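Thread: Telomere length regulation Stn1, structure

OP (GT): Posting the sequence first so everyone is looking at the same thing. Length is 272 residues per the record. Can we get the structure tokens written out before standup tomorrow? I want them in the notebook alongside the other entries.
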Amino acid sequence: MPDARDAEIYPRYCFHLSPTVNSWCWLRISDIETLKRHTEFEGENFFFHSNLPIKWVRITGLVVAVCDADNSRLRILTIDDSSGKCIDIVIKRQTLMEKTDSKLLEGKPSRAAWAHDPHGSIDVGHVVDVKGGLSIFRGTRQIEVEKATVVKGTAQEVILWQKRSTFRRDILDTPWVLSRRDIRQCRKEAESAESTSLAQKEKNRKSRKEHDKLAAQVTTNKTQKASLSARAGSASTRSKIAPKPQAVETRKRLVEMLRDGSTEGKYSALGL
């Protein structure tokens, strides 16, 4: 087995070349406890066996304890694989369907009704085949379950042990070494991908900006059109009710003539 102290930890952009990064890594629970962590990769939950990045694991063992609270979204099973260590596996229940009001239960605690749990039948005494992602909770390593099945018998369990041994021999105990050329090629690909991503983001930003500008212009045009329409309607209304200048002038002259008496006797037939 390669010495972990001598193994080079490659940059993140080289991880896709690792035989473990996107694989279910067969491990014993005691192996999980010895995996190393590196600060720059903790945000992605990467653990390391020598320099091999590991995120997804597969274990086989006996269920020795179950923590199953009705009002909890989590179901926690403790697994023992006879390697000298135990580990908790965490099953996240499916979407909460409904929650009964405790008042309707005559003082009993409220209980949550959950969707069907495909892992609900697993119990103490079952041997299980577990696949999941490694994580840490309060300083303790655990597995967040993606899939867990009950092993049907000893024959199947032996087959799983053989697969675990083969994985250790062919992958974990084989040094992962990249040439300088491989690393340079990975760096170029990463830089190219980043450049493409930045260009696409800039293109999307400009597209959104242009879209927002066009939308604002359309809104402005609609507002101006509505304003002009309102003004035109108001002017039309005023023109209908306003008296004509000539009629106003004629009326004024008649009023003045009546006041001056200059029309006396001229319109007697009209009663004026």
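GT: Both are above now. Quick notes for whoever picks this up: The first helix runs from residue 29 to 34. The chain is about 40% helix and 25% strand.
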